[in-house]
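Re: How this chain folds, sequence and tokenised backbone to follow

Filed under: protein folding, tokenised backbone structure, sequence and structure records.

Contents: The amino acid chain and a row of whole-number tokens, matched residue for residue.

Body of memo: The sequence and its backbone structure tokens, given next.
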Amino acid sequence: MKLQELKEMHPTIPSIDFNPFLRGSAGGRQRIASAINGALSSVGFIHLHNHGIEQRKIDACFHWES
């Protein structure tokens, strides 16, 4: 199998910094919204960071799952 074929089968999960959406201009919000839309449309999953959600709340969500 060629490397390109492998990359197409297992794309890298996009990492998106949400800070410009929370604290930026209208153009920054549009840019982040477009990046999220593009990533979810093409890959189906994203790693969103600088979203402002406290780690303890995230941990609680994972606790509910178990």
Q: What stands out?
A: The chain has a mean pLDDT of 87. The two ends are 38 Å apart (CA to CA). The beta strands are 15-17, 47-49. Residues 24 and 61 are 28 Å apart (CA to CA).
